[in-house]
Amino acid sequence: MLKKQSIHPKTSVGHIHLKVSDLDRSIQFYTEVLGFEVTTRMGDSAAFLSAGGYHHHIGLNTWESEGGKSPAPHTTGLYHFAILVPDRRELARAIQRLADHDWPIDGMADHGVSEAIYFRDPDGNGIEIYVDRPKDQWPKDDKGNIMMYTKPLDIQGLMKIEG
Question: CA-CA distance, 59 to 37, in Å (whole number)?
Fold first, then answer.
């Protein structure tokens, strides 16, 4: 039997690359609604976007998907990808940007370890924007195991931060 070898604890997920049906529409959504910046564009077929000048956090392409349809419900594929923001103020700002663009939000939740909002991009890709609570505030059981849950998000309290 093979010995289990854990991945290094400082490993992180680097970026997401999405197949989209309309590159310009997706660029507009990710820049205007979410606030990312285009770092590189490859003609009419691909673009790379980031926050803070990183080479890219999000890749978009139409190489196999131009004019394509969103995945049908009850099929396999991406459930959602998550964007971690540094604090509650930035989560409130993300919610405000979505509201300013009349973009529908599918859900909001307090997970104990984090607070999150859920919505979809123009191609139906699920997106979560969330903020982690400080690790010392994560709920734990009597054995020290992390206890995640799904409770309503205190949206009024969160939006007061935006001011």
Answer: 11
